Amino acid sequence: MPSQRRPLVAGNWKMNFDHLEATYFVQKLVWLLRDAHFDFKRCEVALFPSFTSLRSVQVLVEADKLKITYGAQSVSVTTQGAFTGDVSADMIAHLGCSYVIVGHSERRKYHPEDDANIVDQVRAVLAAGMQPILCVGESFEERRQGIELDFAVGQVRDVTRDLNDEQAAKLIVAYEPVWAIGTGMVATPQSAQDAAKAIRDDLGATFGQGVADAVRILYGGSVTSKNAAEMIAEPDVDGFLIGGAALDAEELCTIARLALKTSARK
């Protein structure tokens, strides 16, 4: 049966682009997509700027009625108060964001964010009316031990055990093997499919097939136009969370076009 899930191509800019560079990038990307007659109804393109660029992206999207969506790269678990440097889910939602990335390996490593904090972030994002993109994935060590699927599924389960069916159906999962992020190494299409299917099967066992079929599962980790078509051809891979390649408008446009074309054949 063909997948009814709308593919999502998400560009995570990380700590790149000031607000002027962000505006230029969005304008260029939209022009490239329009020139290619891109069908946004069949494939979604989302951008994840830094906090300082979100307002500029919002103004541009709303003023020009652009069809791209956008979100934030992280969120605080608190709503307001004396938390210097934190940004709440409500603040992000009021900027028109549709999504928030939660649990990215760089956040887990450098800040750090533990499982309990990530659960609270997911709940905060959902309560503010947005969708969390939950990042999971194994390191070299877990892969060496042969427990990569159990590890990724366990990370999802740590979050979903506190969600009801309606909340779980709004979750987006990004399988990003840590060893592939920014290294140039990439999982094979079969490895990405195995992880996505394991996650979807676990969601089905916990919440039922309806929820499992609704959740979009993305692949992330050195995604480029050279491997995107093979990846998204897999039945349980619904798109990408892209880092380095998302800083090049032409490359991101090409990946989006490949995702649209290839996913239409599922």
From TrEMBL:
Gene3D superfamilies in UniProt: Aldolase class I (3.20.20.70)
Q: Record-annotated residues binding substrate?
A: 12-14, 182, 222, 243-244
Q: Where in the cell is it found?
A: Cytoplasm
Which InterPro entries does UniProt cross-reference here?
Aldolase_TIM, TIM_sf, TrioseP_Isoase_bac/euk, Triosephosphate_isomerase, Triosephosphate_isomerase_AS
A molecular function (GO) held by this record is: triose-phosphate isomerase activity
Its EC number(s):
5.3.1.1
Q: Which reaction does it catalyse?
A: D-glyceraldehyde 3-phosphate = dihydroxyacetone phosphate
Q: Which GO terms describe its cellular component?
A: cytosol
- Residue ranges annotated as coiled coil are none
Which key words tag this protein in UniProt?
Cytoplasm, Gluconeogenesis, Glycolysis, Isomerase
* UniProt-listed PROSITE patterns: TIM_1, TIM_2
Q: What is its main location?
A: cytoplasm
Taxonomically, which superkingdom?
A: Bacteria
Q: Which residues form the active site?
A: 104 (electrophile), 176 (proton acceptor)
Sorted alphabetically, the Gene Ontology BP terms of this entry are: gluconeogenesis; glyceraldehyde-3-phosphate biosynthetic process; glycerol catabolic process; glycolytic process
Q: In which pathway does it act?
A: Carbohydrate degradation; glycolysis; D-glyceraldehyde 3-phosphate from glycerone phosphate: step 1/1; Carbohydrate biosynthesis; gluconeogenesis
Q: Which HAMAP family does the record match to this protein?
A: TIM_B
Family in the record: Belongs to the triosephosphate isomerase family.
What does the record note on quaternary structure? Homodimer.
Q: What does this protein do?
A: Involved in the gluconeogenesis. Catalyzes stereospecifically the conversion of dihydroxyacetone phosphate (DHAP) to D-glyceraldehyde-3-phosphate (G3P).
Q: What is this protein called?
A: Triosephosphate isomerase
As recorded in Swiss-Prot or TrEMBL, the protein's gene is named: tpiA
